[in-house]
Structure formats: structure tokens, C-alpha cells
């Protein structure tokens, strides 16, 4: 078997999996920018919104940062994978970018 992966035939966001007589390109974990294999522990560097923790790229919880990311009144922060979103608190709804009581 020839190791086709030695020539790095895959794209930047993929890793190469050598198979008998061939190879396949597999997508890197969402937390990675470039990778050497499957999973968040094989990242070359962490994607935006992720940080290296115990050799893995883990999600940064922007909602628990000391500096508030959702600064509008009656707004809550919801952590998402690699990011966050600001939503109106319970009992409030978004009206032209402002959270007003329902």
C-alpha cells in the first residue's frame, strides 16, 4: 500500500485517511482550523470561539466572561458552539432591536 496521505492531498479543513490502495479526505472537527486527524484533540489551531484546554479545542462560554457581551436591557446571553447569541429575556420580545415587554 502506498501512503497517498504523505503528499497531503486533502484541503486545509480536512485530514487524510490512508486506506488499502487508496485514501479519503475527512472533515476536521468544527473546533479546528486545520487538523491531523479526527476530533477536537487533533487540531493544528483552534477555530475562533474555541481555546486549547487539556490538549483539546473547547468552546469558550462567552456568556460567563467577566465583560458582558449582551449589553442591551432585558437581554440574555445564550452560549452556542463557537459563538453566542443575545436573546430577549423571558417576558420580552425583540422590537426593532430593543427588548420590550410582551
UniProtKB/TrEMBL annotation:
<comment type="similarity">
    <text>Belongs to the CRELD family.</text>
</comment>
<keyword id="KW-0245">EGF-like domain</keyword>
<feature type="domain" description="EGF-like">
    <location>
        <begin position="59"/>
        <end position="98"/>
    </location>
</feature>
<dbReference type="Pfam" id="PF07645">
    <property type="entry name" value="EGF_CA"/>
</dbReference>
<keyword id="KW-0677">Repeat</keyword>
<dbReference type="InterPro" id="IPR006212">
    <property type="entry name" value="Furin_repeat"/>
</dbReference>
<keyword id="KW-1015">Disulfide bond</keyword>
<dbReference type="InterPro" id="IPR049883">
    <property type="entry name" value="NOTCH1_EGF-like"/>
</dbReference>
<dbReference type="InterPro" id="IPR000742">
    <property type="entry name" value="EGF"/>
</dbReference>
<dbReference type="InterPro" id="IPR018097">
    <property type="entry name" value="EGF_Ca-bd_CS"/>
</dbReference>
<dbReference type="InterPro" id="IPR000152">
    <property type="entry name" value="EGF-type_Asp/Asn_hydroxyl_site"/>
</dbReference>
<dbReference type="InterPro" id="IPR050751">
    <property type="entry name" value="ECM_structural_protein"/>
</dbReference>
<dbReference type="GO" id="GO:0005509">
    <property type="term" value="F:calcium ion binding"/>
</dbReference>
<dbReference type="InterPro" id="IPR001881">
    <property type="entry name" value="EGF-like_Ca-bd_dom"/>
</dbReference>
<keyword id="KW-0732">Signal</keyword>
<protein>
    <submittedName>
        <fullName>CRE2A protein</fullName>
    </submittedName>
</protein>
Amino acid at each position: 500500500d502506498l501512503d497517498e496521505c504523505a503528499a497531503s492531498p486533502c484541503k486545509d479543513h480536512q485530514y487524510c485517511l490512508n486506506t488499502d490502495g487508496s485514501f479519503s479526505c475527512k472533515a476536521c472537527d468544527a473546533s479546528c482550523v486545520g487538523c491531523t486527524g479526527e476530533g477536537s484533540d487533533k487540531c493544528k489551531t483552534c477555530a475562533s470561539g474555541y481555546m486549547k484546554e487539556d490538549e483539546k479545542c473547547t468552546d469558550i462560554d462567552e456568556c460567563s466572561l467577566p465583560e458582558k457581551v449582551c449589553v442591551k436591557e432585558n437581554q440574555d446571553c445564550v452560549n452556542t458552539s463557537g459563538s453566542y447569541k443575545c436573546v430577549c429575556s423571558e417576558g420580552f420580545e425583540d422590537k426593532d432591536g430593543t427588548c420590550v415587554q410582551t
